[in-house]
Amino acid sequence: MSTTATNAVPPLLPESSPPTTVLAAFRRFVRWDGFGLLLVFILLYVVLSVMAPEFLTADNQLNILQNAAFFGIVALIMTLVIISGEIDISVGSMAALASSMLGVAVIKLGVPMPIAVVIVLAVAFAIGSLAGFVRAYFGVPTFIATLALYLALRGLAQLLTNNFPLPIPLNQFFYWGSGKIQIPVGPTSVFNIPVPAIYFVVLFIIVAIVAKKTVFGRSIYAVGGNIKAANLSGINVRRVKILVMALAATAAAITGLLFSAQVQSGNSTIANGLEFDAIAATIIGGAALSGGKGTVVGTVLGVLFIAALLNGMVLLNVNPYAQQVVRGAVVLIAVLVNVFRTRRSTVS
Amino acid sequence: MSLPEQPILVCTALTKTFGNIRALSGVDFTLQAGEVRALLGKNGAGKSTLVNIVSGSVAPDSGTIELAGNTVAWSGPGAARLGGISVVHQEFSLVPGLTVAENITLGRWPSVGGFLKSNELADRARRAIDMLGVNLPETELVGNLPIAQQQLVEIAKALIDEPRVLILDEPTSALNASEVETLIALVRRLASQNVAIIYVSHRMKEIPLVADTITVMRDGREVRTMPVTEATAETVASLIAGDSESVNISELRNRLDAPVVLSVSQLHIPGTVENVSFDLHEGEVLGIAGFLGSGRTELLEAIFGLRQDARGEVRIGGTEIVHRTPRKMLNLKVAMTSEDRKTAGIVPLLGIGENIVLSARSRVLPKGWLRATRESVLQENILRTLSIRASSAVQEIGTLSGGNQQKGVIGRALAADMRVLLLDEPTRGIDVQAKAQIYSLIRELALGGVASIFVSSELEELTQVCDRVIIIRAGRNREELVGAQASADKILSLVLKEED
């Protein structure tokens, strides 16, 4: 007390102590933005398992995880893009280009697979940087920049392959992209964990740490939440935007490589609509398109929600065209829920 | 209070002109460490320019700044911050999605290899919070805090670089009485830690409590600097207002006998306007005076149907209008021009002519088809009537001067044959000559029976344009000055008056 004699002014505002009790922690949990989504998610699981008995089997759940991983990898980075106030609608085309490039490099040019993968990812990183660059330095909205790439990259993929699949008959490649790891559970049954699901989980942990614990991650929130304040306080706003876009394209390329492995070819027709599922999962997960708001955990919930919904509709034999309608409706509802929630919190 | 001999900040002969407006002419300004200086003056007196120059956002045309004996020339606000001068602006620069601690240390996050050092970050933030002597929930997201606490975060953020001079620009404008007390205690506490503080405020009541000395500015000059103990409310008010400008009020007449076109009673907007009532007569120009944040803009917005949370009655020609929307009000011949001309007034990439006919199209073009000749006749008429200087009706309005843009905005109301104009700061940011033209335009319209509500922070112009001025203070309309009663002095002293 003696050392802080000049600071001995009584507290001027009531202290708001952090929740310590279980009850308070529970309240905090209920107040959490993703709580509503979690409830809806559980509801979906209950409904689907009642209507389709095979839904809740281990094999089917792992199947959901496999499908979730493909667009989930992109959705994780898309979350960072959207928090930074930008968007990337070219990820599907980027994935197709990555797949086509791999096919051409390995089959036509005889490049060893590991080197080809590195080249593909580097090219994707460069293309994403380009979109970020025109955004940061010329003010071209990323919606427009990536709309251009959406067309151009798909076209480039088709040019490279003549729109025919280039078969890549490598078993090991198939395993890394689409194989299963068998984990025995009990004497007779095994879990077949899909390899892509492992990538997804690992990337989830990495992105979650980046978003919460790194200067880059927090800068993304600052740039998306108040770009002027971020700029004035010396954050390199341009670098953040460029890097975020570069990472999104790279994630798209990874998904493209996984698709290649699954279909065992370099293929320019894959990943149609990838951008939709990735953006939809992010929005359902609570990220705001205006930037500054969103969580990686929310996005993972959104990814699993969409994957479970799609899987459930297939099991229930829902007309594929009707499935599209449902997907569209879900996104619209998610956005509306977000809007109402924001409105309520700004009024109170 | 014992002042050290060497002043911490010495500004000499600072001068700055913007275009043909002299914002600052030869201002000297000296500040001691640990001194709290209140900076007073009307809008446009030069306070902001002085603050901006000292804090590095604006470079002076001439003059010098010395900080602790060294001459400095800031390359920008960042340089000034590092050099020891921080500003807390009236608008917050916080990131709602980051925590309190992250906001306070924004852009100065300690890290190793890109990873935040959370403990050190929290320590730094806590040090700034401790300087303030308040409690803030460091891990809470700023977006979840009430405004008063956000203000404290903003101040803590300014303290992170351990400034020797701290500038607070209208720090209490968003705070209630008890929060103001907290803030004043906190400013005194910072001063006791030898920080020099420039305190810009319109609220006269808090000045004697917070400041050691005051500086009054007027027309870009420093008028007087004195200890706060010698400053009475009356002398300060007259120093701020200056010599009464010779205002031509002879032509203003009292139109209270004309029929009422717009009647507002017991208007209430949560958080800003408590209870405001008035009548607006045909052909009358009614001024509304009150400081920033007194609810002037919100009042106009409420009448125009832009605020769904407003309660109370609005009558047009005797009929109560409920569920007001801008579209409905426009149909009733009521138009509003926003104080934010650039974002809410004009469509910058359309021609001046097209901007003018924007709301008139349904009248000129009843069947929805564009009728080029009819439209262009109307456009040309209005361009001529308002003497708008444009190369042609198709010149993009965004490329015109502010004054001509504003005429275009008023012209839009004219083209649509409006009877009531709600004008929010119609002369903001335009030059003197254009201002005069806007005044006479509004007067001419009044002669034709158009009634206007004229909101302005510039008291002189209220006296020049308005038949009647009402003063809004603490959310209520308090006094009313008719015709010649409405001198700038009188308005100012009423605006500054404190409610008890």
UniProtKB/TrEMBL annotation, chain A:
GO CC aspect terms: plasma membrane
Pfam families referenced in this protein's UniProt entry, alphabetically: BPD_transp_2
Record carries keyword Metal-binding: no
Keywords: Cell inner membrane, Cell membrane, Membrane, Transmembrane, Transmembrane helix, Transport
Ranges annotated as spanning the membrane: 35-52, 64-82, 89-107, 113-133, 140-160, 193-211, 242-263, 296-315, 321-340
Localization terms from the record: Cell membrane
Recorded coiled-coil stretches: none
Keyword Transport set for record: yes
Topology relative to the membrane: Multi-pass membrane protein
InterPro entries attached to this UniProt entry: ABC_transp_permease (IPR001851)
GO molecular function: transmembrane transporter activity
Domain of life where this protein originates: Bacteria
Entry protein name: Sugar ABC transporter permease
Organism field: Candidatus Lumbricidiphila eiseniae
